[in-house]
Amino acid sequence: MKTLFHTQMLIKAALNCLYPTVCALCQKGLLLTEDHICKSCYSTLESTSQHSCYQCAKDLPRWAPSGSKCTHCKNDAWFVDETISLFRYNSSFKTLLHLIKFDDQDWIINNFKRRIKNRLKNSGFETHAPSIVVPVPLDPKRYRERKFNQSEIIANTVSEDFLIKKQSSIIKRKKCLYPQSFLRKNERKVNLKNVFSIHKKASIAGQWVLLVDDVITTGTTINECAKVLKEAGASRVTALSLGRA
Fold first, then answer.
1. pLDDT digits (tens, 9 = 90+) for 39-70
2. What is the mean pLDDT of the chain?
3. From residue 136, how far is each of 100, 128, 140 by CA, in Å?
4. Is residue 176 a contact partner of residue 205, using CB atoms and an 8 Å limit?
């Protein structure tokens, strides 16, 4: 194993001489032990709080008991049973997400594979895992522009690590009237009304679904997807995202 590791490092060193690699965030040169993001910049990515709402992963007030629901989940119709998010939606995460989505740097997601795996292991996925993993579908126009769905790349990682069947075509998505990023929370709900539906041949009755998205901001998109899954008979919906606003 040591010989293999040393060989890989030598190959990487040779490639770095020919094609120097830089950090995606600060543009400084990377060490041989670093991939895509330097150690210093990676440390600026903040993990989500353990003191958060179990249903939507939003931070709870200090006075709220751990493991309780936030006011939003208590008052609104929330169809997700629990949410697992890795990082806070801070400036470093926003920059990386922008690079992934708009600069064709989807390979950045590979940096989070181990982090995703460890988080899901801590959530008990090695002994009791969902039946299927379903990525949130991208707006058709966006997909034509990017040629990839970042949520599906994350779903692939989970599917491979925990041997969970991935089903990308279960949820169908129509084109939205307006981009979600430009809208307020209530406007997002209206914009996404009847946008998602379940494929007529899908059979998910009684199944536990892991619903995957890149980031959860207001939660409107993930909740609308969970709603149609529950209406189709899913017994449980767990949401997974890299980021949480």
1. 999 999 999 998 999 999 999 999 998 888 99
2. 89
3. 16, 22, 12
4. no
Domain coordinates in residue numbering, the chain: 1-43, 51-244
Pick the closest to residue 215 from 85, 95, 98 (CA basis): 85
Mind listing the pLDDT tens digit for each residue in 174-188?
877 677 777 787 888
CATH number belonging to domain 51-244: 3.40.50.2020
DSSP 166: E
* Three-state DSSP state, 182: helix
Which value, in Å, is the radius of gyration of the alpha carbons in the chain? 19
* Residue 145, both tokens: 């522009």
d(CA 147, CA 106): 11
d(CA 185, CA 180): 9
